[in-house]
Amino acid sequence: MSLTFARHCIVALTVRVILIVYANFHDNNFDVPYTDVDYKVFTDAARHIIQRESPFERHTYRYTPLLALLLTPNILLHLDFGKLIFSLVDILVSLLIKRILIKQYCTRSTAEFCALLWLYNPLTIVISTRGNADSLAVLLVLLTLSMLQNDNSLLTGVLHGLSIHFRLYPIAFSLAMYLSLHTKNQLIALPNVKQVKLILGCILSLSLLTASCYYFYGYKFLYESLIYHLIRKDARHNFSVYFYMQYLTALQVSGILQKILTFLPQLVLLVILSVRYSTKFSLPFAMFTQALVMVTYNPVMTSQYFFWFLSLLPICLTNLCLSKCRSIFLLGIWLIAQGLWLFAAYLLEFKGLNSFLYIWIAGLLFFMANVKILLDIIVGYRDIPQI
Amino acid sequence: MNLFGATRRQARLLICAIFFFLHCISISIAFNASVDLRVLGDGFHRRLEYHVNIGNLTKENCYVALFIEFSSALYVNVDELADLHRFEKEFQNVVCSVGETNIELFAEKAMSQNVTVCSLLNNITSILTIPIHQRYQNAREGGGYINVSLPSPKLLLGCKERVKGYRVSKVELCLPCADLVTKWREIPYYSTTCNYVWQVPVGDLSHLTLVTNVTLLLTSLGALFALKRIWSNRSSRSKKEN
């Protein structure tokens, strides 16, 4: 590497800034906009906050009010402020990846290489510069992991609570994190001091944040940012393998067997992965595979969800023994399956053609590609430090 | 009594009525209004461009508006409209709506929207643009497409000076269009393109059993394979360690 890591960060940030500027040109000149529709939602919610109204006045705002608060400079300073923040967060995430890997006995150069994979990942660059806020969620998850490595259980718990408040998905990492603090001679039923601190920290921050947001914005906050995500059944086209089934059954109340078969596979996999990879060393891998399972089995899936596992992949890479051929093959089937789905969805959404059946088949293929990646990654994982 | 058996008063009334009728026709013909619709884009998101032409309009400071009652199959996104008015300088006209604001509802559960688009009439021709989207519709046996007709708009003209010969409209326009002038008058117009049929694709309910069974089978198999792989990986590692 001829450039130092700091310079890579500057280059990566510059690329992002160029794309943010380009986004404005693109949005004004093309039918399909570059900027994510959610960015407009955040900005409108921020406008409501400035007008001393609830951010939930904005229809489809389903995030923490803290996000709208953070993005108030979108109105006060410049519309691109949020995108710049998300891009800076991308850089912070890469620094965290490097730090976590060094803690896991990686050499500095390997850690930097893995961090660069995040920094220059085209998906990462595009998602952040489109104005998607998931890089913030990723930052909180990695900060939690980093604190756990530093043996600061209370702060880990506090950060974990904040992560869950910000985005619900890190709740799935709770069991793996809790088990990773387990000591050898400890009874499984009785938590040790570190585990108690983790739980207390998490409950404390989560309940404080929830209570204070509830105080300001009432039940609408609870419903939109928490309950909605639990009961969500979006029957409009998305990457999820369940999309067409959900659309066809939109008029019906799903049977109990269908409900069980929809949620049980995901639940079982999440629990088993938590238990199987519960050592402190394997925790990043447990979280990565769990994130992959959550995204693969989610009843709703959009490209921003890929962030959940893509951010955890670099910290597992050093322990994955996959040949170059295998890696390229896996990446290839993932991209091809995604491309097929996108093409079928384009025909429906922008050409008005009835391509529901093709979207469903492409969704099945994409699901199979994700499962294939999960299987190969499990086989390729080595749970000892690869120095 | 005259030759036709009518009284003098009746004859006078008849003449007045004929004069009034001719007067109205002359004004209508004088305006010679036409509306042409162009639909830009295909699929879920389209842009309606109404080219409004009011020929022979001599008055100044006039506004033109179109009022359209969209069925629940189509919608304008009020947040998108607010954004367009806020940021897009090229977006000259104002669009507002009354009715359904939830953009996520299926057509069957949504209410209709009354949309008004208005603009200052600089020339005799104005282009009024509305960004519009289609809603998802419930699946049905056979799938295919459902035809949604775009309703013909009502053309309204409002000037600072009085426009004679056209009745004041009782249509309730939404704000801010409604407040641009004190009185809006409905203008008859000529159009050959306003009857536009929009085809909305819908899912095929006859696929339900196949789709449900294959989806649930595949997702369950995926989980079983993953569990098997986790288990076998653990066993082989234990053997190696032993």
From TrEMBL, chain A:
Residues that span the membrane, as ranges: 5-25, 75-97, 118-145, 157-178, 198-217, 256-274, 281-299, 305-322, 329-347, 359-381
GO-annotated biological processes: GPI anchor biosynthetic process
Matching InterPro entries: PIG-M
Top-level EC class: transferase
EC numbers for this chain: 2.4.1.-
Pathway info: Glycolipid biosynthesis; glycosylphosphatidylinositol-anchor biosynthesis
Subcellular location: Endoplasmic reticulum membrane
Name of this chain's protein: GPI alpha-1,4-mannosyltransferase I, catalytic subunit
Automatic annotation (TrEMBL), chain B:
InterPro entries named among the record's database cross-references: PIG-X/PBN1, PIGX
Keyword annotations: Endoplasmic reticulum, Glycoprotein, GPI-anchor biosynthesis, Membrane, Transmembrane, Transmembrane helix
Topology of this chain in the membrane: Single-pass membrane protein
GO CC annotations on file: endoplasmic reticulum membrane
Membrane-spanning ranges: 12-31, 205-227
GO biological process: GPI anchor biosynthetic process
Presence of keyword Glycosyltransferase: no
Cellular localisation: Endoplasmic reticulum membrane
SMART domains: PIG-X
Pathway connected to this protein: Glycolipid biosynthesis; glycosylphosphatidylinositol-anchor biosynthesis
Chief localization: endoplasmic reticulum
Family: Belongs to the PIGX family.
Function, as annotated: Stabilizing subunit of the glycosylphosphatidylinositol-mannosyltransferase I complex which catalyzes the transfer of the first mannose, via an alpha-1,4 bond from a dolichol-phosphate-mannose (Dol-P-Man) to the glucosaminyl acyl phosphatidylinositol (GlcN-(acyl)PI) intermediate to generate alpha-D-Man-(1->4)-alpha-D-GlcN-(1->6)-(1-radyl,2-acyl-sn-glycero-3-phospho)-2-acyl-inositol and participates in the sixth step of the glycosylphosphatidylinositol-anchor biosynthesis. Probably acts by stabilizing the mannosyltransferase PIGM.
Protein's recorded name: Phosphatidylinositol-glycan biosynthesis class X protein
